[in-house]
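Need a sequence for this fold. Nothing fancy.
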């Protein structure tokens, strides 16, 4: 539509803009409203591409440490672990006190052989309690005897610390009882005799 002159004067144009024409009703119904920006992936694809948190998709990463822990627990419970550990610590303390640069170390025998032999045998008893728990009664009694003998041979039993650790560890190993398995019909007492569990 051509611009009409203002007040009938030629050359002057009405500065007011013309109103925009309304779009046809059919065009508005044909175009659906935009719900997402162009270029964004659909919601279904975004949900499918989401990655699980670390470790969620790899059960082996979480069960590996659990299996190691269960294996360690079953091995530790199948032998007098704490008694053997105390015996080993007592033997190590006695050996340390023998090797200490102190003038109060008591030497007995040729060149103080017993001062080293007794704690070494005590250390061997502690290791054998872990390796061969079936003979724990013999090793535990021998460990107690060697710990008492270290009072005379190895600097008063490592200043009483190694002596007490050896006696306590030997007593714990002697009193230890294996836990019966889930399918076992009985258990072993400290004397090694097999007795049936009550029904």
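Here you go.
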């Amino acid at each position: 539509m051509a611009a009409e002159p203002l007040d009938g004067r030629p050359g002057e144009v009405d500065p007011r803009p013309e109103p925009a024409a309304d779009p046809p009703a059919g065009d508005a119904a044909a175009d659906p409203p935009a719900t997402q920006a162009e270029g964004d992936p659909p919601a279904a694809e975004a949900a499918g591409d989401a990655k699980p948190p670390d470790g969620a998709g790899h059960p082996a990463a979480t069960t590996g440490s659990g299996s190691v822990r269960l294996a360690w627990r079953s091995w530790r419970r199948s032998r007098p672990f704490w008694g053997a550990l105390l015996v080993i610590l007592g033997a190590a303390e006695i050996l340390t006190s023998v090797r200490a640069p102190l003038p109060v170390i008591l030497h007995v025998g040729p060149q103080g052989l017993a001062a080293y032999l007794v704690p070494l045998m005590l250390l061997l008893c502690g290791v054998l309690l872990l390796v061969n728990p079936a003979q724990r009664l013999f090793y535990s009694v021998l460990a107690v005897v060697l710990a008492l003998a270290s009072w005379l041979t190895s600097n008063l039993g490592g200043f009483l610390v190694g002596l007490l650790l050896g006696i306590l560890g030997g007593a714990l190993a002697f009193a230890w009882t294996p836990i019966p398995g889930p399918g076992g019909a009985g258990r072993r007492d400290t004397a090694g005799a097999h007795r049936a569990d009550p029904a």
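For context: Residues 183-197 have pLDDT under 50 and may be disordered.
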